[in-house]
Amino acid sequence: MDFLRARAWSPYLVGAMIGLLSWFSFASADKPIGITTAFENSAALVQKAVAPEQAKQNPLFAERAEKKKPVKIDWEWMLVLGVFCGAYASSKLSGDRLPGSYVPPLWRWRFGDSPGKRYLGAFFGGLVMMLGARFAQGCTSGHGISGTMQLALASWVFAPLAFAVAIGTAYALYGKEGRQH
To answer: pTM here?
Structure first.
């Protein structure tokens, strides 16, 4: 089990494992893997609890009622929790994050040592990604994994564009100099 302590895994092994997870998801839940729908459902349910009259106007509820698939908290939250727990376990097992280290070296080099600034950047980066995923009607796991596996044209357009935007964003944030850090 030494491979669990590795700082990086083989992309081929990880790809095969994600493929198996996708097969398991289709076989057991008849659903593709995806994460952003869990957040969309949760936000809609909060709206329904806080502002029920306004929620009646929310097209998500009507669309799901028509498909006989109610808005609810379901198995996708297990995937969300699994990502957080897996990332935490990975960082602990691999020793990738030193105790008390809250700012990665590349971020520290470019933006300073402030954990607050790092957390704020991570929060807003996640928010932009979530909004983008909603506009694209799927996230990197929904389009990039499940959709491409099913040969969906929208997913095959999305995946290369997501990589291109990620590379451009990294270059804009860190420039050529970031490659040395």
So the answer is: 0.73
